[in-house]
Design a protein that fits this description.
Length: about 240
Amino acid sequence: MSHKQESAFDIIAFDADDTLWHNEIYYKQAEEKLAELLADYHPAEFVVQELFKTETRNTAAYGYGIKSFTLSMIETAIALTEEKITTEEICEIIGFGREMISADVELIPNVRETIQALSASHMLMIITKGDLLDQERKVVKSGLGDCFKHIEVVSEKTSDIYKALLSKYEIAPERFLMVGNSLKSDVLPIVAIGGAAVYIPNGTTWAHETVSDEEAQKNYYHELEDIGQLPELIKNLSNPKE
C-alpha cells in the first residue's frame, strides 16, 4: 500500500455500523417483532419505549451489540408481562437475536467504491463499538477487511478512549480523521481532542447516539450527505486552495 505524502492525515478511521453497513434496521425489525409478541399486554409504542430504557440501563453491564440487546429484550418482556411470559416465548425472543447475528451484511451505497479507492492512498482503520465476535464477523462478511490496516472494537467512544488509541498508534490528533454517523460517538469526542471528523447522517441512527442541536453547533466538523463525497473532501483538506 502506498501513502501519498501530501495527505493531511496519517490515518482515516471509520465507524462501522450504519456508516459502512446497515445495522440499526435489524434492531428496528427485532423491536417490531417483540412488540408484536407482547401485543396482548401493551401497545407497540410503549413496548419500544420500555425496551429503550432497559437497553440504556444495561449498557454499563452488558456493553453494546446484539447479545446485549437480546438480553434487554428478554428482561423487558419479563417485566412487561409481569413474569407471565412463557418459556416458548423467551425462546422466540432469543431467535430474534439469532436472526440478527446471522443476517447478511449490506453495505451502504457507495461504501465499497469509496473504501477501496481510499485504501490505495491512505491508511484506513475501523473504530467501532459492540460485541467483538459480531463486529469481526461483519468485517469478514463485508468483503472489505483487507482495506483496513487496523480494527479496534471498543466499549465506548469517548475522548479519553480516542486519546488512548492515538497514543497506541503514535498519531497526532491533527493528523487523524474520523468518519461516522454519530455525532455523540464519532464526531464530538474527536473534535474535543483536536482531531478532524466527518459526520455522515443516517436516518436510522439509534436514539442513544443523538445529541442536541445546541451541543452539535458548538463544534466544528465536516458534514456530508453521502460517503461517496469523502475522497473529494479529503483531497481538498490535504491540498487547500491558495
